[in-house]
């Protein structure tokens, strides 16, 4: 995993490694060397549990982090955004991402042609701590070896620069739990409604989930990089992490609002009465741009 403040040093080490897809952990740099192992403001305009719908044409750019069963979102022809914990939860290097997958239950899809892209490098937010359970700054950028080919299912999202206001309708997408025991083989979408962070905290407290919330977010949610969103019988669940929370404007442009975070709302159940927790894109525009612009300067 490559941190921006050590980018040049780690890139040099990565170039010397045998595999072009090596992921380098800063605290294990020497051992790994030896082993050679998008902007607009939010338009005024709400996942996927029980009351969700399969994705259809002109819908979500379907992306998954291979083997991690996490989501990601295309933001340029070489980069995707995902949740950092998806990367660190793997017990092996992340080698590829799959774009355009709509249905894992079928090898003969009529409405998509999934493509795997090899991973060149991963850049994690410098303030994300993989050794901690804390999930602030839970964002990472994935760079592909080859340029991404766009189509009606795979395309770059625009990036919001302002957080959505409470009651804004947004959409979440993923392959997460759809009931207590089953994960969806088909990419699902559901409308959600943004909930203010103060109200969101109170909901968790009233449902006696504040202790679980504090395990991941010890300073709770106010003034942090978290967006809450919910709707009756809808939320983001296991398998959705890293996937998009988005909205479309009147001109048909798709804006990435958030990333599905490490929530506690429906862990193991598939249903939720608690708001889902998402990493705010607007809070991380400087990080995203620093990665995109630095990459442009190296090409």
From TrEMBL:
<keyword id="KW-1015">Disulfide bond</keyword>
<keyword id="KW-0325">Glycoprotein</keyword>
<dbReference type="GO" id="GO:0006508">
    <property type="term" value="P:proteolysis"/>
</dbReference>
<dbReference type="InterPro" id="IPR018114">
    <property type="entry name" value="TRYPSIN_HIS"/>
</dbReference>
<dbReference type="InterPro" id="IPR051487">
    <property type="entry name" value="Ser/Thr_Proteases_Immune/Dev"/>
</dbReference>
<comment type="similarity">
    <text>Belongs to the peptidase S1 family. CLIP subfamily.</text>
</comment>
<dbReference type="InterPro" id="IPR001314">
    <property type="entry name" value="Peptidase_S1A"/>
</dbReference>
<keyword id="KW-0732">Signal</keyword>
<keyword id="KW-0645">Protease</keyword>
<protein>
    <recommendedName>
        <fullName>Peptidase S1 domain-containing protein</fullName>
    </recommendedName>
</protein>
<keyword id="KW-0720">Serine protease</keyword>
<dbReference type="GO" id="GO:0004252">
    <property type="term" value="F:serine-type endopeptidase activity"/>
</dbReference>
<feature type="domain" description="Peptidase S1">
    <location>
        <begin position="69"/>
        <end position="293"/>
    </location>
</feature>
<dbReference type="InterPro" id="IPR009003">
    <property type="entry name" value="Peptidase_S1_PA"/>
</dbReference>
<keyword id="KW-0378">Hydrolase</keyword>
<dbReference type="InterPro" id="IPR043504">
    <property type="entry name" value="Peptidase_S1_PA_chymotrypsin"/>
</dbReference>
<dbReference type="InterPro" id="IPR001254">
    <property type="entry name" value="Trypsin_dom"/>
</dbReference>
<dbReference type="InterPro" id="IPR033116">
    <property type="entry name" value="TRYPSIN_SER"/>
</dbReference>
<dbReference type="Pfam" id="PF00089">
    <property type="entry name" value="Trypsin"/>
</dbReference>
């Amino acid at each position: 995993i490559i941190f921006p403040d050590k980018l040049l040093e780690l890139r040099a080490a990565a170039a010397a490694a045998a595999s072009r897809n090596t992921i380098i952990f800063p605290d294990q740099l020497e051992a790994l060397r030896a082993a050679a192992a998008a902007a607009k403001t939010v338009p005024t305009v709400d996942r996927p549990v029980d009351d969700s719908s399969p994705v259809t044409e002109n819908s979500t750019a379907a992306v998954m982090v291979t083997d991690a069963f996490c989501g990601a979102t295309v933001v340029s022809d070489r980069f995707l955004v995902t949740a950092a914990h998806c990367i660190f939860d793997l017990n092996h290097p992340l080698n590829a991402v799959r774009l355009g997958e709509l249905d894992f239950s079928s090898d003969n899809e009529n409405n998509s042609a999934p493509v795997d892209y090899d991973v060149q490098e991963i850049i994690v937010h410098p303030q994300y701590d993989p050794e901690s359970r804390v999930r602030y700054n839970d964002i990472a950028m994935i760079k592909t070896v080859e340029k991404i080919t766009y189509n009606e299912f795979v395309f770059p999202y625009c990036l919001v620069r302002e957080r959505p206001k409470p009651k804004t309708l947004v959409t979440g997408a993923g392959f997460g739990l759809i009931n207590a025991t089953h994960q969806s083989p088909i990419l699902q979408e559901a409308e959600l409604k943004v909930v203010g962070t103060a109200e969101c905290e109170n909901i968790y407290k009233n449902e006696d989930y504040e202790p679980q919330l504090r395990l991941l977010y010890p300073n709770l949610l106010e003034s942090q990089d978290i967006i809450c969103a919910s709707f009756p019988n809808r939320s983001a669940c296991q398998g959705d992490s890293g996937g998009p929370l988005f909205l479309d404007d009147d001109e048909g442009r798709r804006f990435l609002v958030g990333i599905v975070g490490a929530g506690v709302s429906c862990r193991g159940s598939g249903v939720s009465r608690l708001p889902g927790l998402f990493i705010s894109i607007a809070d991380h525009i400087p990080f995203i741009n620093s990665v995109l612009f630095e990459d442009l300067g190296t090409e």
